[in-house]
Every structure is written in structure tokens, then in C-alpha cells.
Design a protein that fits this description.
heterodimer, A: alpha+beta, eight-stranded mixed β-sheet, five-stranded mixed β-sheet, 16 strands, globular, B: alpha+beta, Outer Surface Protein A, domain 3, three-stranded antiparallel β-sheet, two-stranded antiparallel ribbon, 3 helices
Chain lengths: ~300, ~90
């Protein structure tokens, strides 16, 4: 069963009651929230996601609820909780949906150690995965959203999950978080893309989430082999250009961008260097998405030749 | 004389002249070139004189000793010591 199979009443009973169990990649989240904007966001962005039963074992029990107390009358806020613990300060009620998405990422990045996890977008084509690590503001998510609209498959917008056993990358398959001008850029680049309502004045500016294409979601079980590591950077007026970069330095940068490299110790080093060894490593500067698509298409052609 | 910090265990990986070295003791990863990596390897088995390191590195890499002389290696060794990878005993 997928979320869109639920009637409105069933959906509301689950999200407000025993919890809505959503399967995202290898993880199950049980989500409880009485907040209307959270319900709308989930209904839209997770419509095609498989559901678990309310009694299923889940990886993460999360809730987004209104704060109590007298302040709720003039400054309503939303509080996130994970297994009953509230790790963050509350945010304005209007920020409840992005808070849920950020907090779901936080759950994975802080609790999971059976993958080497890199802070990076990952896309796939022909069974080959491209890992794109980059700091906020580099244009990583915009590039990722653009490429999945032109033949690439989204594995994750936020984290690369590299298996400790077979070294393959497991799809996480979550909505893509876009900020500020990137929202309109992608709406114009891919008019069929589906976006959640924009939340303004967050710590990251204006934020919206783009739904993962349904056909790509159906391939959530398909792992991919790491083949390219690309460090993207949006540079106004730059020509789209790939330049080779050092594997040793790429290893260090990826280690810095990892959530649990230090926790995994020698295993993390071995998994990471195995991944780097089999990848081509590049820096990538771009200003225009169509040009970026053309450069990445050539990369695929070169590999297949 | 120099030796590897007894708390360190090193694992090496390289692509041509690019090396990464993982220290299990600290959990840190270091990036270096071949001469630096081979210099570290010569300190793994216990206290060793600077001259012996120089001669060993020259032999392993098939280089003239002048290219990896004690004077040339000393800054690398001092840097490794400052990173906690090596210990130094005044000669």
C-alpha cells in the first residue's frame, strides 16, 4: 500500500493517532502530528511512498506537535520529538514541515552506523552512482534537482549511504530541499515538478521541498555502484566545466563531509578509500543547468564507450 | 632517533604519488606524498636514526640519498611529531 491509497479519514486517523509509518529507502519512520501543514506536506510529497502497518517495527518514532503553554496563543510553535526526546528548540508553527524534514535527516545522521554516511547528494545513471558532496550554498541540491529531471535517478539529496558489506550505495529517496532562488529556477527548468508550499523566513531563508518522481521511487530497492565523485560549485557566469581532482584530497574532503567516518574507524577508512579508488574525481563549476546536463551526459557516454 | 607513536597504528592507501594514511590510534586521516609515506613506514618498527631513515627511503624509492637527505626529511619528521604520529628522542 502507498500513502495515496489511504482515504483522507484513514490518513488523518493515522497521522493524528497511532502514527503514519512511511518507508523511505531502508528506513521506516512512524510520524505523528496534529499540525495541518505537516499533514498537507506528507500527503503531497510522500503520496507514492510505501506504508508500513502501525504495528511494524520502525527505525524512528518521530512527532511534530504544537508547544503547550500560554505563549501558544500569540506565538504558536512546533516541537520535534524523537522517541519522546526533544533534541531541538521549538520553531515557529509555520516552519513545522521543513522542521520535520530536517529532523528526519538528523535522525538518520545521528543514529545509523551500519552505513558509511556522507553528507552528499547522490544520483544514478546506468547503475553508476555520482556522489556530490558540497557545503550549503554550492548549488548541490539545485544541480541534483535539475539532473533528476533529465534522465538521472535520485538516490538522495542529503546523504550517501555506502554499505559496509558490498560497498554499494543504497537509495534513501526523500524530497529535495530547495532554497530561495533555486525554487523558481527548478520550477522553470522542470514545470512538471511538484513542490510543497514555500516556508519563508527560516534559518535557511525561503524553503520548499520537491517531490521525488514516482517512477524513481519505484526503484528504491536498486542500489548503485559509486563511479564518480563530483564537488559542484555554482559560479555566476561560469562555463560548465569538470576538472580532475586528487583522489587523496577527495578522500579527505569526503571524510570531513561524513557523519560517521570517525565512529567507524578503520572500517570507515577502508570503505571510503575503496569507493574513491573506483571513482573518477572532479571539481565542477557551473552557472546554467542545461549546460550542466550536457556535461554530465558526456561523462556517462565516456564511461559507456 | 624517531619512532612511531606507540598509540598509533597506520594504514596506507595510495594512487600514484598521492597517499592517505589512517591512524587507528587517533582516528585521523592524513594526506601526503610518497616520500612522506615511506618515511613514516621506516619509523613503524621502533627507534631508528635519522640517517637510517634517509638511507632506507632512498633505497626503497630508488632515489639518490641527496634527494632524501636528513636535512630534507627533518621538516617532515618534525611535522609528523607535531601531529602526534611520531616520537623523537634527541640523538
Amino acid at each position: 500500500m502507498i500513502l495515496s491509497d489511504l482515504t483522507d479519514i484513514d490518513f488523518r486517523n493515522r497521522i493524528r493517532g497511532s502514527g503514519l509509518v512511511i518507508c523511505s529507502g531502508p528506513f521506516k519512520f512512524r510520524i505523528v502530528s496534529p499540525i495541518e501543514s505537516v499533514a498537507r506536506g506528507l500527503r503531497l510529497l510522500y503520496a507514492d511512498y510505501p506504508l508500513g502497518d502501525s504495528g511494524d517495527f520502525v527505525d524512528f518514532n518521530v512527532a511534530i506537535e504544537r508547544t503547550a503553554g500560554i505563549r501558544r496563543w500569540w506565538r504558536p510553535q512546533a516541537n520535534f520529538s524523537f522517541n519522546g526526546i526533544r533534541p531541538f528548540l521549538p520553531l515557529p508553527l509555520g516552519h513545522a514541515y521543513p522542521l520535520l524534514e530536517w529532523a528526519m535527516n538528523w535522525c538518520i545522521s545521528t543514529q545509523v552506523n551500519h552505513y558509511l554516511m556522507l553528507h552528499a547528494a547522490v544520483i544514478e545513471r546506468g547503475g553508476c552512482a555520482m556522489i556530490m558532496p558540497a557545503p550549503p550554498g554550492s548549488g548541490k541540491s539545485t544541480l541534483c534537482a535539475g539532473l533528476i529531471s533529465r534522465g538521472w535517478r535520485l538516490l538522495s539529496d542529503e546523504m550517501a549511504l555506502i554499505s559496509l558489506t558490498d560497498r554499494m550505495i543504497t537509495p534513501l529517496g526523500r524530497p529535495i530541499s530547495l532554497k530561495n532562488q533555486s525554487i523558481d529556477i527548478i520550477k522553470s527548468f522542470e514545470p512538471d515538478a511538484i513542490f510543497n508550499e514555500v516556508t519563508h523566513d527560516t534559518l535557511k531563508g525561503s524553503v520548499s521541498h520537491m517531490k521525488m518522481p514516482a517512477l524513481q521511487l519505484q526503484r528504491m530497492g536498486e542500489k548503485a555502484k559509486p563511479c564518480w565523485i563530483v564537488f559542484p560549485q555554482y559560479v555566476p557566469n561560469a562555463n560548465a566545466e569538470l576538472t580532475g581532482r586528487s583522489k587523496a584530497n577527495s578522500t579527505l574532503e569526503l571524510a570531513k563531509n561524513s557523519f560517521n567516518y570517525m565512529v567507524l574507524g578503520l572500517t570507515g577508512f577502508e570503505i571510503l578509500t575503496d569507493a574513491v579508488a573506483q571513482c573518477e574525481c572532479y571539481d565542477f563549476r557551473y552557472a546554467n543547468l542545461e549546460d550542466a546536463v550536457a556535461v554530465f551526459d558526456k561523462l556517462v557516454e565516456a564511461r559507456q564507450a | 632517533m624517531w619512532r612511531l607513536n606507540p598509540k598509533s597504528t597506520l594504514h596506507f592507501r595510495h594512487w600514484g604519488n598521492e597517499w592517505v594514511v589512517f591512524d587507528v590510534g587517533s582516528g585521523h586521516t592524513h594526506e601526503m606524498d610518497t616520500i612522506s609515506a615511506v618515511t613514516l613506514m621506516h619509523c613503524e618498527s621502533g627507534w631508528v636514526h635519522l640517517n637510517e631513515i634517509s638511507q632506507g627511503v632512498a633505497k626503497d624509492l630508488d632515489l639518490p640519498v641527496s634527494m632524501v637527505s636528513s636535512e630534507r626529511l627533518l621538516p617532515f619528521l618534525n611535522q609528523f611529531a607535531s601531529l602526534g604520529l611520531l616520537e623523537n628522542l634527541a640523538e
